[in-house]
Automatic annotation (TrEMBL):
Pfam families: PurS (PF02700)
GO MF annotations in UniProt: ATP binding; phosphoribosylformylglycinamidine synthase activity
Keyword Lipoprotein: no
Highest taxon of the lineage: Archaea
Protein name: Phosphoribosylformylglycinamidine synthase subunit PurS
Assigned keywords, A-Z: ATP-binding, Cytoplasm, Ligase, Nucleotide-binding, Purine biosynthesis
Example of a GO biological process term: purine ribonucleotide biosynthetic process
Signal sequence coordinates: none
The UniProt record lists the keyword ATP-binding: yes
Organism field: Nitrosotalea sinensis
Length: 89
């Protein structure tokens, strides 16, 4: 029996920089209203999906999860920017 390690692949989906982010703007406005001395200049919101997958290596785990995200249209590539990180479990 061949043992395959498990990986957690975090997929972060956020609006592209040129796309308006109302949630981030609301959070920033609330910060400024509550503390007008805040040093925070911009807030961008994002969604993170955490996949746990068995794979031969980190690269395969990441590629498999990103292919799943593309195949099932989990995000809109016209407005979303996707980044990922892989953690060995």
């Amino acid at each position: 029996m061949h043992f395959m390690p498990s990986f957690q692949v975090n997929v972060i989906i956020e609006n592209k920089p040129e796309i308006v982010d109302p949630e981030g703007d609301t959070i920033l406005n609330d910060l400024i209203l509550k503390d007008n001395k805040t040093n925070v200049k911009k807030v961008r919101s994002a969604k993170m999906l955490k996949f746990v997958i068995d794979a031969q290596n980190k690269e395969t785990a990441e590629k498999t999860v990103l292919n799943i995200c593309n195949e099932f249209r989990i995000y809109n590539p016209l407005v979303s920017k996707v980044t990922s990180e892989v953690i060995t479990l």
